[in-house]
Fold:
Amino acid sequence: MSEKTENLVEIRHLKEYFNINVGFFKTKPLKAVDDVSFTIKRGETLGLVGESGCGKTTVGRTILNLYKPTAGEIIYDGKPVKTKEDIKEFRKKATMVFQDPYSSLNPRMTVQDIIAEPLDIHKMYKTPEQRRERVLELMSYVGLNSEHASRYAHEFSGGQRQRIGIARSLAINPEFIVCDEPVSALDVSIQAQVINMFDELQEKLGLTYLFIAHDLLVVRHISDRIGVMYLGKLVELADAKEIYDHPQHPYSISLLSAVPVPDPKEARANKRIVLSGDIPSPLNAPSGCPFRTRCPRACDKCAETVPELREISPGHFAACHLL
Ligand SMILES: Nc1ncnc2c1ncn2[C@@H]1O[C@H](COP(=O)(O)OP(=O)(O)OP(=O)(O)O)[C@@H](O)[C@H]1O
Ligand code: SF4
Ligand SMILES: [Mg+2]
Structure:
């Protein structure tokens, strides 16, 4: 154990710009992820939250090199992931669970073939018997039983399909999983079950997660730390409890004020802050602080200078000129 690095995943100044056509032969960079840095410790869950379009999925996909980074470094287990060889090795250890269990599974394949596909691709068995045993083991991890193996994905409910997708992701024996809103498409009544399953699998298999959600309530219990994104940038990062109890960035404060509080007395004291205006397009991001067009506390400096993500108390980072 002592040789293992404490940080399993480290990203430094990650940028992902998409070139968008804006006229005849004219393109403009859409800055989906703009200079994001963070680390994830071995065995840790980092929650990543923010409104639709702020760049959460792009962060996840770029870390896994499903998109080639425009700039920045991805360091996995102490080693940079750069060359084709590095990426190939990295793909054996890192994978993704997708948001939509309806479109991510081929309806014409049986459950066992869906789960075994990564095993087939990476040639991870010697005999058909070994393949079958491994598939049954993976199914048992996610609470599916052997009778489900020869049925088709379309015969299952959303929650069961998500379990099939998770079993498939586990097939390569990953260490690190990007969970991209894995419960958002599910009924609220089964979201908790699936979240608990992620928690148990982490414990059992020693997994490390980047857990993406736009709902703060979803990541609250599963995350050790939480990062808040706005318009391609990380604006706050701290321990989960700290960010709930003492959010510092004006954007995080407004996000949290929208989270329902069970106690009505507390809810009344905790006045909801409704942000005016929509999130700007990352094609036309404001100058200076990305949040300034909606920030109730914006001042002149906010239009001129981009606030750096700084450590404002031990382990608590925020990007705001006022802090
Ligand atoms: N392949 C792509 N080509 C061009 N633009 C893209 C691409 N993927 C994402 N974008 C743009 O990048 C920005 C960030 O998108 P992303 O999907 O990462 O956001 P998100 O935070 O995951 O949103 P959601 O909560 O809706 O899933 C958006 O403006 C989106 O339109
Ligand atoms: S830097 Fe200015 S605009 Fe940005 S969050 Fe802080 S106060 Fe608001
Ligand atoms: Mg997304």
The chain has a mean pLDDT of 90. Residues 54 and 231 are 4 Å apart (CA to CA). The chain has eleven helices and twelve strands.
